[in-house]
Amino acid sequence: MLANFLTPAYLPFAIAFFIMIGIGLIEAVGLGLGHLDLSADVGVDGHEGVLDWLGLSGELPILIWLTSLLGCFTLTGVAIQQGVSTFFGAPLTWPLACLSALIGGGLLNVGAAHGLARIMPGYESSVISTDDLLRRRGTILEGVARRGSPARAKVVDQHGQAHIVMVEPHDDTTVIRAGERALLVRREGQLFFVLAEDNSLLRSI
């Protein structure tokens, strides 16, 4: 069997097998390369349904999905070549075997991917949108924030990660100095507008 695995008829499946092992090792050591959000920002109707069907739009990391696909492709290809050899005395040519294995392995991987997604722990991303910083308090780091003269401020998000943003007072007459805190209330592009901590509107918050 091992000798057959290195013949041209089986070589694509041998390559797929070794790639699968390599990707599996990457995931095993926890490099975190597999977590890609393929379903975000899908703008064309029907694409999300296709991704769902393939098992790609849930919590399954892309490299785990790819490892599963390579495994299904390898198993299906070897099974096809073994079956054809048994009945006809010789395996299929590698292009025909690859096409057959890709179709069969792809269908098999649909079920495998959905099964893996159910048993794997969910992946929680700490990536946030810029707008998620709104309604959070920040601290002016240096300089003085005035209308038309923004200053740098540090804001800590819900995951405990610090973000450095440029802020201006929401009110024309307000001045916010280094070390003072303010509430981010709106955003225009990359610039945030804030209410000073001592603003009367914030006394009850």
Automatic annotation (TrEMBL):
Residue ranges annotated for the Inner membrane protein YqiJ N-terminal domain, each copy included: 11-103
Keywords: Membrane, Transmembrane, Transmembrane helix
The protein's name: DUF1449 family protein
Transmembrane segments: 12-33, 62-80, 92-110
Record bears the keyword Lyase: no
The keyword Transmembrane belongs to this UniProt entry's keyword annotation: yes
InterPro entries: YqiJ_N, YqiJ_OB
Top-level taxonomy: Bacteria, Pseudomonadati, Pseudomonadota, Alphaproteobacteria, Sphingomonadales
Domain (Inner membrane protein YqiJ OB-fold) ranges: 134-194
Cited Pfam families: YqiJ_N, YqiJ_OB
Organism domain of life: Bacteria
